[in-house]
UniProtKB/TrEMBL annotation:
Gene3D superfamilies: 3.10.20.370, 3.30.70.270, Ribonuclease H-like superfamily/Ribonuclease H. It comes from Trifolium pratense. GO terms for molecular function: nucleic acid binding; RNA-DNA hybrid ribonuclease activity. This is Gag-pol polyprotein. Residues 1-56 form the Reverse transcriptase domain. InterPro entries: DNA/RNA_pol_sf, Rev_trsase/Diguanyl_cyclase, RNaseH-like_sf, RNaseH_domain, RNaseH_sf, RT_dom, RT_RNaseH_2. It holds the Pfam family RT_RNaseH_2. Residues 275-404 form the RNase H type-1 domain. SUPFAM superfamilies: DNA/RNA polymerases, Ribonuclease H-like.
Length: 453
């Protein structure tokens, strides 16, 4: 077999007796087209050797020991320039390191800071972890033609990672580790969106494997159902189209038996606290001549996703609609017995007034604000963040769906909770009449959304 990579080539033979014949054929072709080889860069008749920066052996693809030694012996960085050199060395070896981006986050953050260089204990711990990982790097294997490969994912708050593996008679063998540090808007993605992004990231970086093999993604997140929804918009639609090029299947995650792979999954529990009932909420209000509505999208740390389109059966200003949406989101997660919540709104006014950054002069909005602050005390931890409208697109669609809902005919086909909320003032009602309808529908949504297995 002859493999050519730009100006490098390798001739491989399964049987030693055939190797001379194979070399002769290559030399004949080179002579025919007047190609010349540099003898100093040629090696013949070996069972192992360095190629493309890696060490090829009968066992598989191994990290270049010289590069690993250089990384291991790298002194503690004392400037951003030395951090850049360290990151460059890590990039060359990242395919051998599980969740390299996640473990290198303190180093990445150090480069992003505009302040003076400061090497912290967190940075030192990250460096030592990476050095330990590269002191005994795993041996990567090459899949056979037509072999099915399996993808495992890890999603953390600031990084996503994946490992592509083979299942052989000798056990599970890693093919490639990939990871990515999340930046900007990606940090605000829902957990399930980050999971889909991890698949997309793996497909982009390992495109040659995805094109040549069937890929089975093993995850307990319901991304198969999410990607199959007919009402996808924005980035989810884009990702779905991008992944449709490949032969990808989904199944429940199974145990990883190989120690290096088991460690990959086991560490997934570090950045999260599954015992806590955490919810992320996106809210948006809409008011127009046709009516007013509130859109709420909720997701918990188990991947359960709920979408609510709430029609406000009374006239409101746009700010009042925004507050109604915020309050409805709080009521819903309160019913879910949430302990920690993170709420995103694209209303700068609402976010700033709740944070105490803006004064509230409107008497009606003051009543909303007081009730919201009272509700927030019921949670162990709460965080309110303002996001641009484009990062709150789904809640925006849900609010408009409610505010433009027709009274007769033309039922909507979206798979969301749709309910009507009666007049809020005088006094803000507790929605007891409406809550039964929400509870009944919520049960159906949970049965549909909750991951199987």
């Amino acid at each position: 077999m002859l493999e050519v990579y730009m100006d490098d080539m390798i001739v491989k033979s399964e049987e030693e007796v055939d190797h001379t014949t194979h070399l002769k054929k290559v030399f004949d072709q080179a002579r025919k087209y007047d190609m010349r080889f540099n003898p100093e860069k040629c090696t013949f008749g070996v069972k192992a050797g360095k190629f493309l920066g890696f060490y090829l052996t009968e066992r598989g693809i191994e990290a270049n020991p010289d590069k690993c030694r250089a990384f291991f012996e790298f002194p503690t960085p004392d400037s951003k320039k030395s951090i850049q050199s360290l990151n460059g060395m890590l990039t060359a070896l990242s395919r051998f390191v599980a969740k390299s981006a996640q473990h290198a986050l303190p180093l990445f953050k150090l480069l992003r800071k505009e302040s003076a260089f400061e090497w912290t204990k967190e940075c030192e711990d990250a460096l030592q972890h990476l050095k330990r990982a590269l002191s005994e790097p795993p041996v990567l294997t090459r899949p056979n033609e037509g072999e099915t490969l399996y993808l495992y994912l890890v999603v953390a708050s600031e990084a996503i990672s994946a490992v592509l593996i083979r299942e052989t008679e000798q056990g599970q063998k890693p093919v490639y580790f990939v990871s990515k540090a999340l930046q900007g808007p990606e940090l605000r993605y829902l957990q399930i969106e980050k999971t889909v992004l991890a698949v997309v990231m793996a497909a982009r970086k390992l495109r040659h494997y995805f094109l040549a093999h069937s890929i089975v993604v093993r995850t307990d997140q319901p991304i198969k159902q999410l990607l199959a929804r007919p009402d996808m918009t924005g980035r989810m639609l884009k990702w779905s189209l991008e992944l449709s090029e490949f032969e990808i299947f989904f199944e429940s995650r199974k145990a990883l038996k190989a120690q290096v792979l088991a460690d990959f999954i086991a560490e997934m529990t570090i950045p999260s606290t599954p015992n806590k009932n955490k919810w992320t909420i996106f809210v948006d209000g809409s008011s127009n001549p046709q009516g007013s509505g509130a859109g709420i999208m909720l997701e918990n740390n188990e991947g359960v996703l709920i979408e609510v389109s709430l029609e406000l059966a009374f006239p409101t200003t746009n700010n009042q609609a925004e507050y109604e949406a915020f309050l409805a989101g709080l009521r819903l997660v309160e019913d879910m017995e949430a302990e920690e919540i993170k709420i995103y709104t694209d209303s700068q006014l609402v976010a700033s007034q709740i944070a105490g950054e803006y004064q509230t002069k409107d008497e009606r909005l003051t009543e909303y604000l007081n009730l919201i602050k009272e509700k927030l005390t019921k949670f162990k931890q709460s965080e309110i963040k303002h996001v641009p409208r484009e990062h709150n697109a789904r809640a925006d669609i849900l609010s408009k769906l409610a505010s433009t809902k027709k009274k007769k005919g033309g039922a909507h086909s979206r798979n969301v909770i749709q309910a009507e909320h009666s007049k809020t003032f005088r006094g803000i009602p507790d929605m007891r009449n409406q809550r039964q309808e929400l509870d009944d529908t919520r049960v159906r949504i949970f049965e549909h959304r909750k991951p199987s297995g």
